[in-house]
Structure formats: structure tokens, C-alpha cells
């Protein structure tokens, strides 16, 4: 396998933006972790590995990626089973499995693997008509891994994975009648999920979203502190390393779930707008690649990755400002974490591969 010199050169804008946001992520992580250089070095090492992975994936022909998609999906199911029985426990959840000395959260990678598999399945037939059989088979593909992720337990990631799958189905051209069926099914299932599936602490998170002050020292603490951090940043921010909520450790999960709050407090409205502009440039480039995609598989997958990228940003930022309950979604390229970083760079590599083919 050789790396085509045009793989990255033709996407110099996208490649440059990824580097800029990655460096910005390491910078804000240094502040969020109270200048812990060891964590920054560890994250930087992960970034270097992920950059090489992205370049490797980008050099693979998209048709080969299509061919191996079901095998990667099957392997991820196997890893979920391994995680369930022999996974690493942390804070009462078993979500990580050790592979060659590295801790991997398989559910993070599924956010990309699932759309790959659905795009492969939906592109098997020359007939692009989305009938009820395809819909049922697609939901079997979606819910099989979700069943294992819920057992970890990780309802928040399960919902994100579900949304990732539904996005792929919609992009494949689902019928309006099927949408009506799904909406009706949701109205029936939602009360049952609330009563039988949600754990007490998960219900409390949702209720706290409506009124964080009802439990300011418990489930509402995260949201209250995050909103204070975002609001106190003002127009220009308090300056790098000068955020009181993060430096005085009022803000929990500063390097992961609430890194946006740290960023907003230190760089203010102006900094947030610059960050959003950088994200917007990536999204615009993704849309352009999706439009140029030659095959049905490529179009579904590229469109899915674009929507998922937007979904992750909106979810994380909405968590930070109290519009959504805390579900443990990281901010792409900024948050601390190896598995989420691996997932997003794998997606970048696929987008480069699709663009090269186009």
C-alpha cells in the first residue's frame, strides 16, 4: 500500500484546520488540568498516533473500506462481549478493554463503525428503494451493539450510537411512511424506557436539566458550575490560565465533558466564535466531499460522518450551557481521551479517502 501524494495535498485546508484545532486542544488541556504537562504529553502522543492512523486510512481505497466494513463491525461486537466480561471497571461502569496495553472504549469507535456497516449493507442492492425489510435489518444492525453498550451501563453513548445509525438510514432515503412509523414507535417506547430502562441517577440528570437548582450540590452541580464558567468568560475571556472555575477546580470533568466551559471562560465570546469558525470550515469541507462522492456507499458514509461530527459538537456544547443532560460526549479534537480521538481521526481518514477517490 502506497500513500498517494495527493491524498493530503488536495485537502490542505482541511488538514491544516485539523492541526490547528489539535494544537488548540493541547493548549486548553494544559490549562484545564492545572498545568499537568504529563497529561498533555500523553494526549500529544495519542494525537501523533492518530495522525498516522488518519494518513494510513486515507491511503486505502474507499472500495476496500467498504469491503472490510462488516468484518470491522463483527470484530467490534466481539470486543463489546470481551468488555462486558473482562473489561476495566471505572466509576461503576465497565466500558474499557485492554488491547496490547492500551485502554480502548469500543463504544466510541462504534460511532463511526456503525455508519460504515449501514452504508455497506444499504449499498449491497442495486435497488435504492428503502423497503420495510431493509429498515428492519438496519435496526437489527443498530441495536445489536447498543444492547451491549447499555449493559456497561452507558445509556448516553447508546443514544448517540442510535442517533448515528438513524442518521445513516435517513441519508439512505427512508420513506416518509417509515418515518411516521418510527415516530409512533418512539412515542410508545419512550415511557417504557423511562419506567424500566433508565437508572435512578439517569432520571435525575434529566430532571436536573429542567431545574438545576433543585440539587445544586448533587446532580445539578456540573451544569451550574459549567454555566458559571461559560458566562463569566464575557466577551474577551479571562485569559489563558486565568479561568477561576477551572483553576480553582470548581468545574468537574474539566478535561473531557466540560472542556468547552474552560475554553469559553478563558477566551470568551471571541475565542468561541473563532473555534466555531474552524469547526464550520471542517463541516463545509465535509459537505463538499459528500457532494463529490462517486458511489452510493461513499455518499451515505460521508454524509453520516458530516452529520455525526455536527452532532458531537452540538451535544457537547449544549451540555456545557445546560441545554442537554450530561451524557459524557467529548468535544472533537479538544477533549482529553484516546478512544474518542481515535474515532474522530479514523473518520477524517475515511473522508480523505472518499475525496481522493472522487
Structure description:
- The chain has 14 helices and three strands.
- With 358 residues, the chain is mainly α.
- It has helices at residues 6-9, 12-32, 37-58, 62-86, 106-122, 132-150, 155-171, 176-197, 200-210, 221-232, 244-247, 259-292, 296-320, 338-357, and strands spanning 88-90, 93-99, 102-104.
- Helix 5 (106-122) packs antiparallel against helix 6 (132-150), helix 5 packs antiparallel against helix 13 (296-320) and helix 12 packs parallel to helix 14.
- 71% of the residues lie in helices and 4% in strands.
- It has one domain (6-357).
Topology:
Blueprint: H1 6-9, H2 12-32, H3 37-58, H4 62-86, E1 88-90, E2 93-99, E3 102-104, H5 106-122, H6 132-150, H7 155-171, H8 176-197, H9 200-210, H10 221-232, H11 244-247, H12 259-292, H13 296-320, H14 338-357
Antiparallel strand pairs: 1-2, 2-3
Amino acid at each position: 500500500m502506497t500513500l498517494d501524494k495527493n491524498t493530503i495535498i488536495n485537502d490542505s485546508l482541511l488538514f491544516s484546520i485539523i492541526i490547528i484545532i489539535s494544537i488548540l486542544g493541547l493548549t486548553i488541556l494544559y490549562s484545564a488540568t492545572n498545568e499537568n504537562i504529563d497529561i498533555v504529553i500523553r494526549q500529544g502522543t495519542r494525537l501523533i498516533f492518530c495522525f498516522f492512523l488518519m494518513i494510513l486510512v486515507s491511503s486505502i481505497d474507499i472500495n476496500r473500506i467498504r469491503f472490510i466494513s462488516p468484518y470491522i463491525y463483527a470484530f467490534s461486537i466481539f470486543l463489546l462481549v470481551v468488555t462486558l466480561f473482562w473489561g476495566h471497571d471505572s466509576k461503576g461502569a465497565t466500558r474499557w478493554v485492554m488491547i496490547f496495553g492500551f485502554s480502548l472504549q469500543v463504544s466510541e469507535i462504534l460511532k463511526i463503525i456503525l455508519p460504515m456497516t449501514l452504508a455497506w449493507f444499504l449499498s449491497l442492492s442495486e435497488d435504492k428503494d428503502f423497503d420495510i425489510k431493509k429498515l428492519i435489518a438496519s435496526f437489527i444492525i443498530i441495536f445489536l451493539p447498543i444492547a451491549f453498550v447499555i449493559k456497561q451501563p452507558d445509556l448516553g453513548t447508546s443514544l448517540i450510537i442510535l442517533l448515528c445509525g438513524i442518521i445513516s438510514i435517513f441519508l439512505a432515503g427512508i420513506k416518509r411512511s417509515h418515518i411516521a412509523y418510527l415516530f409512533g414507535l418512539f412515542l410508545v417506547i419512550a415511557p417504557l424506557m423511562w419506567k424500566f430502562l433508565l437508572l435512578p441517577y439517569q432520571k435525575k440528570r434529566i430532571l436536573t436539566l429542567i431545574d438545576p437548582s433543585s440539587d445544586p450540590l448533587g446532580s445539578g452541580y456540573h451544569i451550574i458550575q459549567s454555566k458559571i464558567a461559560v458566562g463569566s468568560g464575557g466577551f474577551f475571556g479571562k485569559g489563558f490560565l486565568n479561568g477561576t472555575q477551572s483553576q480553582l477546580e470548581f468545574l468537574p470533568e474539566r478535561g473531557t465533558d466540560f472542556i468547552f466551559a474552560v475554553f469559553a471562560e478563558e477566551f470568551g465570546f471571541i475565542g468561541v466564535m473563532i473555534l466555531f469558525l474552524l469547526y464550520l470550515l471542517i463541516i463545509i469541507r465535509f459537505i463538499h466531499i459528500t457532494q463529490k462522492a462517486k458511489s452510493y456507499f461513499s455518499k451515505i458514509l460521508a454524509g453520516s460522518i458530516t452529520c455525526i461530527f455536527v452532532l458531537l459538537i452540538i451535544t457537547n456544547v449544549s451540555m456545557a450551557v445546560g441545554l442537554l443532560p450530561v451524557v459524557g460526549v467529548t468535544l472533537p479534537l479538544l477533549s482529553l481521551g484516546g478512544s474518542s480521538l481515535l474515532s474522530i481521526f479514523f473518520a477524517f481518514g475515511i473522508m480523505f479517502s472518499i475525496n481522493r477517490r472522487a
